[in-house]
């Protein structure tokens, strides 16, 4: 900091401030002292200082619990996009409190109170899984701003994971109006790029516990989707949890069928395991969120209790589930045919 920065608004030098900061070179005093001194210089810098404070907690976290925080935050931000909320507008994530967070990332967020109502599904996931370990539920709803959203997030962590056992995340998105279900299973490849045999066996175990969802009947000529299978795999790059990150993480998304076909092809070729290098096509988070939002991906007409049966299989096999329930009543679809219909073109 230059010496000129040590002058008060009245033109006099602040001696105490000058003594607490060096004349030149690196600042060796604590960050709290630096920010306190900046606030004393001028009240105008208060907002700027507040925006820098979260960056103090920028340590890399490689523990199992912190990496689950990373994945849960990623899933929450991704499904918030589907619900119509951009990460920049999702203020609770920016106000995340590490001291309040427990096994679940969302336990460090401040949402609104969940108000269960008659014949409603609000709070039902938390009610069903309240005794399995640690269950946290937060609701997020818009006020009178330009964006309209209303969704609930429930994190369920099995007792064995809370007590220090290994666990990974399945994230669920359920749209109430269309009863549409999408699932993201979070996987991290080994350093050599191979998917572990444990990951494949866990997928097999999961599929062995769930009931196949019926293929929905088309209600109209426009009722069409690209993928009815709700399961997708989210494969992360090897990155730690960083508290100051407020966006989705780097990585790719693959339909489960693509991974299953690649695993079979690797076995036919005598390869020991599937390498992510063999997968040349993938979805990026932004495109995935848009396709889910417009109704192209996901199982439709799924009863909520059936979705919770899948959540139960997740908790039993991988230990951690995040369930995002979207109550918004917006219509599905991107409206691409509206202009043609308006012109009388079939």
Structural notes for this entry:
About 30% of the residues lie in helices and about 15% in strands. It is of the alpha+beta class. The chain folds into 2 domains: about 5-55, no CATH class; about 60-325, no CATH class. The strands form 2 sheets. Strands 2-3-9-4-5-6-8 form a 7-stranded mixed sheet, sandwiched between helices. Strands 1-7 form a two-stranded antiparallel sheet. β5 (about 180-185), α8 and β6 form a beta-alpha-beta unit. α4 (about 65-80) packs across α10 and α8 runs antiparallel to α11 (about 305-315). It is globular, with a radius of gyration of 24 Å.
CA gyration radius, whole angstroms: 24 Å
Which structural class fits the helix and strand makeup? alpha+beta
Order of helices and strands: HHHEHHHEEHEEHEEEHHHEH
Alpha carbon gap, first and last residue: 68 Å
Major sheet: size, sense and barrel closure? 7 strands, mixed
- The total strand number stands at 9
Inertia-based shape: globular
Mean pLDDT: 79
Tally of distinct domains: 2
Strand proportion, as a percent range, falls in: 15-25%
Question: What count of helical segments does DSSP give?
Answer: 12
Q: What percent of the residues sit in helical stretches (DSSP H or I)?
A: 25-40%
Low-confidence stretches: 1-9, 17-28, 335-346
For the biggest β-sheet, the strand order reads 2-3-9-4-5-6-8
